[in-house]
Amino acid sequence: EEGAEVTKRSLEDKRVQVAAEEVAKEVTLQLMKNQDTIEGSANFVRQVLEQPVTLRAAGNLVKELYRDEDMLDHTGKWVSTIVERLCDDPGVQSNIQKLLGVAITNLYADKEMQE
Question: How far apart are the C-alpha atoms of 79 and 114, rounded to whole Å?
Answer without folding.
Answer: 23
